Amino acid sequence: MTRYQYAVVVNLCGKSMKGEISDQLAKLLPCRARRRLARGLKRKHLTLLARLRRAKKEASVLEKPATIKTHLRDMIVLPEMVGSMIGVYNGKVFNQVEVKPEMIGHYLGEFSISYKPVKHGRPGIGATHSSRFIPLK
């Protein structure tokens, strides 16, 4: 882990003691997220964190921070991101997501559905053998 990545992990909970950080963070994150953070964050993810920090700093006290748009659906929600407004791209539009404490450890993509759920209607002709007896409208 590089110095910069260590500094990001230290900033997650606002503490500077290495052991305490990992223990607190480990309780909040599932195994897959812990492993991903142990391997280090990529430059794109670190840039997103920096943009979120800047947006929070520029917002007034009682105001929500500006929405930051991103395509990074694989970004893990960290404690530092709580309270931020993020526009997560679903392949068509940016869905606005307000990060809440219960989202920590999940991926941003989980909060921006990328497909239209199927709405099953009535069976049509040829759907089943009994559909021959369903009157047409």
Automatic annotation (TrEMBL):
List the top taxonomic levels of the source: Eukaryota, Metazoa, Ecdysozoa, Nematoda, Chromadorea
Give the residues annotated as coiled coil: none
Does Ribonucleoprotein count among this protein's keywords? yes
GO CC terms in record: cytosolic small ribosomal subunit
| Protein name as it appears in the record | 40S ribosomal protein S15
Q: Which GO terms describe its molecular function?
A: RNA binding; structural constituent of ribosome
Kindly give the PANTHER family that the UniProt entry links to this protein: RIBOSOMAL PROTEIN S19P FAMILY MEMBER, SMALL RIBOSOMAL SUBUNIT PROTEIN US19
What protein family does this chain belong to?
Belongs to the universal ribosomal protein uS19 family.
Which UniProt keywords are given for this protein, alphabetically ordered? Ribonucleoprotein, Ribosomal protein
A single BP term in Gene Ontology: ribosomal small subunit assembly
The scientific name of the source species is Toxocara canis
Q: Which gene encodes it?
A: RPS15
Say which domain of life the source belongs to.
Eukaryota
